[in-house]
């Protein structure tokens, strides 16, 4: 918080602009030079903030990250801007005009909500985090829509707001927390707060949450961005019991139709690798039906089919070879085909991709993808290329 106060002064802001693009390898030399003209504490704060902003680009984009203020935990735990914007749009489209953002962090979600025209009460109990959130609301020109408050979220009255958004802390002193009741605040408290919201509520949770832990009156949505699963959201006041996978950019949304598990069938000409959000949402059956396909193995989320059909929910590969798992045979085949660019994917196999790559020593001008998996329970290798 003291660092942030220094950086918000005219001297601090000017210094931040000066060190914006500092190469980490040159940081010591830059710090030595700047300390001749500026207090050492300010120089350290500016260089530290510059590092955080560089890390934040992947989540917020260069323009926003280059002017926002971050804490180390804030960079790590904040929502990717594209995901926050999608969530904010859903709330705005449902008629929400005001949201209590509980556990707001450095304010990334509050900014997305305000940009969607929603009035926000942003609450966090950590003073440094609150200071960053307040500074971010101001620097983004959204202070008129975002009120930032330092408080324990469990003691905040949210009665005057249409909706509640809760992003519980899912990391502790020993790293990531997997038990939803060990979140801070616990998931059970967040669910109670959501049920009291007049119009709608959204709870951000870890994508690995067991389906049986989802309340019956909630909608569960798994979200990926660019193929990477980012989070799950429990929605209240929308479609109770609904399950969906949403892929960004797009958005593209696949809804559960309650289909039974697909049948197992021999490998066809194509292998489809479902998006991670589809897998987490248990919607592989919906994708398999769309592709007129089946599973390679009852326990593996690879879909096989004879026809190539475009789908946003899975990546297609044309399979050229199906072999029992055998490193020597794979090495000989790759050498024969002069494969030097080898992509190794695995699901249901204990073999590590890098270990396999070292053993087969791919060399040559051609590319291939090998899938280490099981086919009807037996370890197998499927070789192919993106379709």
Overview of this structure, please?
With 387 residues, this protein is of the alpha/beta class. The chain has helices at 2-7, 10-18, 27-34, 40-65, 72-77, 81-93, 108-115, 127-139, 187-196, 276-280, 284-291, 327-336, 353-360, and strands at 98-102, 119-124, 146-150, 163-166, 171-172, 175-176, 200-205, 219-225, 228-236, 243-248, 252-255, 270-274, 294-295, 303-305, 314-324, 339-346, 366-375, 378-386. A nine-stranded mixed β-sheet has the order 3-2-1-4-7-9-8-10-11, sandwiched between helices. It has a seven-stranded mixed β-sheet with strand order 13-14-12-15-18-17-16. It is flat. It starts with a helix and ends with a strand.
Short description:
It contains 13 helices and 18 strands. It is of the alpha/beta class. The strands form three sheets. The chain has a nine-stranded mixed beta sheet, with helices on both faces. Strands 13-14-12-15-18-17-16 form a seven-stranded mixed beta sheet.
Which properties best describe this structure?
387 residues; alpha/beta; seven-stranded mixed sheet; flat; 18 strands
Q: Output the structural class.
A: alpha/beta
Strand content: 25-35%
- Please state how the strands of the largest beta sheet are arranged side by side: 3-2-1-4-7-9-8-10-11
Strand tally: 18
Overall helicity: 25-40%
Task: Point out poorly predicted stretches.
Answer: none
The backbone outline, from C-alpha atoms, is: flat
Query: Over the alpha carbons, how many angstroms does the gyration radius reach?
Result: 25 Å
Q: Biggest β-sheet: count, sense, barrel?
A: 9 strands, mixed
- The number of helices is 13
Mean pLDDT: 93
Report the end-to-end length measured between terminal Cα atoms: 52 Å
């Amino acid at each position: 918080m003291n660092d942030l106060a220094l950086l918000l002064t005219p001297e601090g802001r000017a210094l931040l602009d000066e060190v914006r693009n500092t190469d980490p390898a040159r940081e010591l030399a830059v710090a030595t030079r700047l300390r001749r003209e500026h207090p050492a504490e300010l120089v350290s704060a500016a260089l530290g903030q510059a590092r955080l902003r560089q890390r934040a680009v992947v989540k917020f984009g260069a323009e926003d990250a280059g002017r926002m203020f971050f804490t180390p935990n804030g960079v790590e735990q904040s929502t990717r801007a594209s995901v926050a914007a999608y969530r904010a749009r859903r709330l705005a489209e449902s008629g929400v005009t005001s949201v209590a953002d509980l556990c707001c962090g450095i304010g990334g979600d509050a900014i997305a909500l305000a940009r969607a025209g929603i009035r926000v009460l942003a609450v966090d109990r950590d003073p440094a985090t609150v200071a960053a959130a307040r500074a971010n609301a101001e620097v983004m020109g959204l202070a008129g829509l975002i009120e930032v408050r330092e408080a324990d979220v469990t003691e905040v009255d949210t009665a005057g707001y249409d909706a509640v958004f809760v992003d519980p802390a899912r990391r502790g002193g020993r790293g990531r927390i997997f038990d939803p009741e060990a979140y801070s605040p616990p998931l059970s408290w967040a669910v109670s707060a959501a049920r009291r919201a007049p119009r709608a509520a959204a709870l951000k949770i870890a994508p690995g949450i067991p389906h049986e832990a989802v309340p019956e009156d909630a909608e569960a949505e798994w979200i990926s961005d660019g193929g990477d699963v980012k989070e799950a959201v429990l929605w209240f006041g929308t479609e109770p019991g609904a399950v969906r996978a949403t892929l960004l950019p797009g958005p593209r949304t696949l809804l559960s139709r309650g289909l039974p598990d697909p049948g197992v069938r021999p490998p066809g000409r194509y292998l489809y690798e479902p998006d991670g959000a589809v897998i987490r949402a248990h919607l592989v059956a919906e994708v398999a039906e769309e592709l007129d396909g089946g599973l390679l193995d009852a326990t593996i989320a690879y879909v096989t089919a004879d026809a190539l059909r475009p789908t946003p929910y899975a990546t297609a590969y044309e399979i050229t070879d199906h072999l029992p798992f055998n490193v020597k045979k794979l090495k000989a085949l790759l050498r024969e085909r002069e494969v030097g660019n080898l992509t190794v994917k695995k699901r249901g196999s204990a073999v590590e991709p890098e270990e396999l790559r070292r053993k087969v020593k791919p060399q040559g001008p051609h590319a291939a993808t090998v899938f280490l998996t099981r086919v009807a329970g037996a370890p197998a290798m499927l070789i192919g290329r993106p379709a």
